[in-house]
Amino acid sequence: MNISVITVGKLKEKYLRSGIDEYKKRLSAYAKIHEIEVADEKAPEHLSEEDMRIVKKKEGERILGKMDADTYVIALAIEGKMKTSEQLAKSIEQLGTYGKSKIAFVIGGSLGLSDDVYARADELLSFSKMTFPHQLMKLVLLEQVYRSFRINRGEPYHK
């Protein structure tokens, strides 16, 4: 299975980089992990609705350019469906069973995702109704994907 994590912006925090690298290393026993960062669009703090739409559209075009037509796309979104770790594990297992060997998890930038990315997504996934820094979400996501593979293989992991 090929799993991509597509995010907007460069990861700068060393403590997050360390955790992400650790989970990528652990996941390498189960799947090929691709970490893809697309450039964020520079934007002032206060934007009009139209300017926000333009920024998200530009970032969205970069995101969409990083996935193949046969990729199953899971966009992280507050309005997405919440799942337990076991439900996420089952979803990943079913995707593999039904021939979806390319999965891309998409994490938007500070303004969120464009309508085009939402339209391309096969599924919207929410980890919480709270807002988190997108780089922290990358770490949390990789931990949950790792946990999913452990669950699917019947291997022990923290509960």
UniProtKB/TrEMBL annotation:
InterPro entries tied to this protein: Alpha/beta_knot_MTases, RlmH-like, tRNA_m1G_MTases_N
Main location: cytoplasm
Keywords, ordered alphabetically: Cytoplasm, Methyltransferase, rRNA processing, S-adenosyl-L-methionine, Transferase
GO cellular component terms, A-Z: cytoplasm
Residues given in the record as S-adenosyl-L-methionine binding sites: L76, G108, F127, S128, K129, M130, T131, F132
Enzyme Commission number: 2.1.1.177
Catalysed reactions, as listed in the record: pseudouridine(1915) in 23S rRNA + S-adenosyl-L-methionine = N(3)-methylpseudouridine(1915) in 23S rRNA + S-adenosyl-L-homocysteine + H(+)
Keyword Methyltransferase included in the entry's annotation: yes
Protein origin, superkingdom: Bacteria
Signal peptide stretch: none
A GO MF term: rRNA (pseudouridine-N3-)-methyltransferase activity
Quaternary data: Homodimer.
Subcellular location: Cytoplasm
One Pfam family cited in the UniProt record for this chain: SPOUT_MTase
Annotated function: Specifically methylates the pseudouridine at position 1915 (m3Psi1915) in 23S rRNA.
Keyword S-adenosyl-L-methionine on entry: yes
Family the UniProt entry places it in: Belongs to the RNA methyltransferase RlmH family.
Protein name (Swiss-Prot/TrEMBL): Ribosomal RNA large subunit methyltransferase H
UniProt enzyme class: transferase
